[in-house]
Every structure is written in structure tokens, then in C-alpha cells.
Specification:
About 45% of the residues lie in helices and about 15% in strands. By secondary structure, it is an alpha/beta fold. It folds into 2 domains: about 5-50 and about 310-400, Aspartate Aminotransferase, domain 1; about 60-310, Aspartate Aminotransferase, domain 2. Strands 2-8-7-6-5 form a 5-stranded mixed sheet, sandwiched between helices. Strands 9-12-11 form a 3-stranded antiparallel sheet. α2 crosses α12 (about 295-305). It is globular and about 60 Å long. The N and C termini lie far apart (about 50 Å). The relative contact order is 0.17.
Length: about 400
């Protein structure tokens, strides 16, 4: 007899992206010339994981005691201060009203947001194209995911669709949690312009006058965008005191240490008492899930953020990786435009999405020819982060067939 509760029976045992990556890897190991555009990690043109040398060295320099000891439930103060400074120093008002807790990667930050800013049975709101684990995280927390059409006829963010969807959510459930993944949206690669952020903030503020609305910015890929990754803060700063402001911060991509599982949820809240209550709720959730995070990882990332020489070295090393990625982005844009592939504006980041009405069938046909992409509803997710520049033309040709 199966003793797993009925509501948890029949769940998939593996993430479909990891399953596709495993199949591509096995076929490559057997000698097949495979293009693997599934894995969300930055690889060099030789197919090896691209790792910042300075970050790797500092991780190995963490003391034995820091690796062995428990971290405080909310995270070490040095790490939390460093993250808030890194994220919010350009907006002093936000920084002075911020609290944070450490989480296992950005995923842990998303989990805490869902559990603490929505009631059971309620839905978070996000774009129609979204990172699949949003749904897994919501399902595991007895919440759901609702979406609004991401793009309008001009290929920009559909502000009117957001306005309608947010209004409907507030009418039916009395509160809203909006996930915005920007810049370098996963999976589309789209980065919003300042005027789009301004419009999003205006819509959130208007609805927040009647109901509690919380905006979460998922900034996992922000270090690889084409512009200033903190520029959007100018547009959302006026929401302080009017709507909830959350930021899911991750070291995984920024410092190329995905397995270290270092992240944070940062909340901006006016009023010392309300900040303390927010911090307590998040810390309580940490104790009730993973208890505490990887202290050695927190120590390493804090040092990389606050030591000026180490931070400068990481910036230079990351810039080299960004140049490698940008070369792939340029190659994709040239080849995809020539073949008239339908895809959103793509300026930088790990992923791009090609629209397709029969994505599952298309991905299966590509896989037969040794080109692996991830099918989603109405689109194919292409992880250029893991594709060598020399393979971009073959990838685009397969997408265009």
C-alpha cells in the first residue's frame, strides 16, 4: 500500500530540464555531436562550467570552523548586510528600510515569499512565460500560479493585461503577490525598459491603495544583463510604504557557484515594528523548513561582496564571461533574424525563447537530430549560456526547420 498522501501521489520524480540535460549528456558521452541548450549554467566554449577563479579561491579559503559551525537561522549578519548593500546601495531610502534572511539560493527566497505573502489556496501572479519551478514551489506550499499575457502586439510587456489580471486577483482573493523576473527574464531573455518598469510600479501603486499588493523582483540573472542591473530600483522606490517590496537575491549565477546554494530574500518595509515583524516571519519560516543555511558559503560570498580587491577581481572575471555570452547573443540575433524566427527582444542573459505553437513536438523532432531545447507552453526555451558560439548557427537552423 502506498502511504504517501493522495495529494502528493503521481508527482514527477525529476525536473524535466534536468532530465533533458542528462539525456543530452549521455548521448554526447557516446560520441554524438550534441547541441545542449537546456542547462541553466554558464559553460565555456569547451563545454566546461565557467567559474570565477577568485570566487573559487575564496570558497577554499573559508576556515574549517566556518564550514563546520551552524549559521544563525536568519543568516550571518555580515552576509545579510553585504547583500542589502549590494542590492540597494543606489537607493538609500530602500536600504535604510530593508531586512533580509539567508536562503538556499534564489529558490529559497521565492519559497519564503510564497509562504509568507499569500494565504493557502491563493495564487501568485506572474507573466505567461515563467520559470517552471514557480509552479512547483507554489504547489508544494498549497498555493497556485496565475498568469497574464506577457507580450502585447508590439512585443513589449503587456501592461494592460497586467492591470486587468491584478485587479481580478484582488477582487477574488483580496491580496496579490506579483513575481517579476527582470532583467534577463527566464525563459524569454527579455529585459524591461525604464518606462515599462515605471508603468508596472504605477499599476502596483494604484491597486495597492485598496488592497495589500506585494511586488517581488526575481533578480537571479541580473549580473548578465546589457545595462545597469539596479536601474529599475529608481522606478520601484516610490512604492515603499505603499506596497510590499521583495527582492530574491542569488549568488549562484553572479558568482558562478550554483551548488553553494547561497541566496537571500530582502524585504523593504517602512516602520521599525513592521520590519521586525517581517524579519521574524521570514526567520520562523527558515527554522520550519531548512533551519539554517550553509555558513561557509555565507562567509565566502560576504567576503567577495565587501572586500574591494576581491569584488574588483570578480567584476573583471565576470565581465570576461559576459563578453563570451554576449558573443553568443549577437550570433543568435543575427542568425535568428535572418531566418525570421519569432522571439522577443534579446539583449543579454542566459536564455531566449522562440515562440512555437507545437513546442513539445518541435522539441522532440530537434532532439532526434541531436539539438536539445526545453519545450514550454507556446515556446521553446533556449539556454544560450550552455551553447558554444560555433554551435549557434546549427541551433538556429534546427529551430527554423
Amino acid at each position: 500500500m502506498l502511504h504517501v498522501i493522495p495529494g502528493h501521489q503521481g508527482r514527477p520524480s525529476d525536473d524535466p530540464i534536468f532530465a533533458l540535460n542528462r539525456e543530452a549528456t549521455l548521448r554526447r558521452e557516446k560520441g554524438e555531436a550534441v547541441v545542449n541548450a537546456t542547462v541553466g549554467s554558464l559553460l565555456d566554449d569547451g563545454g566546461r562550467l565557467a567559474v570565477l577563479p577568485t570566487a573559487a579561491r575564496v570558497v577554499h579559503e573559508v576556515s574549517r570552523d566556518d564550514w563546520a559551525a551552524y549559521a544563525p537561522i536568519a543568516g550571518t549578519p555580515a552576509f545579510l548586510e553585504a547583500v542589502m548593500d549590494d542590492l540597494l546601495s543606489s537607493e538609500p531610502t530602500l536600504r535604510s528600510n530593508a531586512v533580509a534572511v539567508a536562503t538556499p539560493g534564489g529558490t529559497g527566497a521565492l519559497r519564503h515569499a510564497i509562504a509568507n505573502f499569500l494565504e493557502p489556496g491563493q495564487s501568485l501572479l506572474t507573466t505567461s512565460f515563467f520559470w517552471g519551478p514557480y509552479k512547483t514551489l507554489a504547489d508544494e506550499a498549497d498555493r497556485r500560479v496565475a498568469t497574464f499575457s506577457m507580450f502585447n502586439a508590439q512585443g513589449t510587456l503587456d501592461i494592460d493585461a497586467l492591470d486587468r489580471a491584478l485587479g481580478e486577483q484582488l477582487r477574488t482573493q483580496g491580496r496579490a503577490l506579483l513575481f517579476v523576473n527582470d532583467p534577463c527574464h527566464n525563459p524569454t531573455g527579455y529585459s524591461m525598459q525604464p518606462e515599462e518598469w515605471r508603468a508596472v510600479a504605477a499599476i502596483v501603486q494604484a491597486h495597492a491603495e485598496r488592497f495589500p499588493v506585494t511586488l517581488l523582483v526575481d533578480s537571479a540573472y541580473s549580473a548578465y544583463g546589457a545595462g545597469d542591473p539596479r536601474a529599475f530600483l529608481r522606478e520601484v522606490a516610490p512604492l515603499l510604504g505603499r506596497a510590499g517590496l521583495l527582492f530574491a537575491w542569488s549568488a549562484s549565477k553572479t558568482f558562478t557557484h550554483y551548488g553553494l546554494r547561497v541566496g537571500a530574500l530582502v524585504a523593504c518595509q517602512e516602520g521599525a515594528a513592521d520590519r521586525a515583524a517581517t524579519e521574524a516571519a521570514l526567520s520562523y519560516s527558515s527554522r520550519g523548513t531548512w533551519s539554517n543555511c550553509n555558513r561557509g558559503g555565507l562567509a565566502a560570498i560576504a567576503r567577495l561582496l565587501v572586500d574591494p580587491e576581491l569584488a574588483k577581481a570578480c567584476d573583471l572575471e565576470r565581465d570576461a564571461l559576459k563578453q563570451m555570452l554576449q558573443a553568443r547573443v549577437r550570433a543568435f540575433n543575427v542568425a535568428a533574424s535572418a531566418r525570421k524566427l519569432p522571439y522577443p527582444r534579446y539583449d543579454g542573459g542566459f536564455f531566449v525563447t522562440v515562440f512555437h505553437d507545437r513546442a513539445v513536438e518541435k522539441a522532440a523532432a530537434m532532439k532526434e537530430k541531436g539539438v536539445f531545447v526545453v519545450p514550454q507552453t507556446g515556446a521553446l526555451r533556449v539556454a544560450l549560456c550552455s551553447v558554444a558560439e560555433r554551435d549557434v548557427e546549427r541551433l538556429v537552423a534546427s529551430l527554423a526547420e
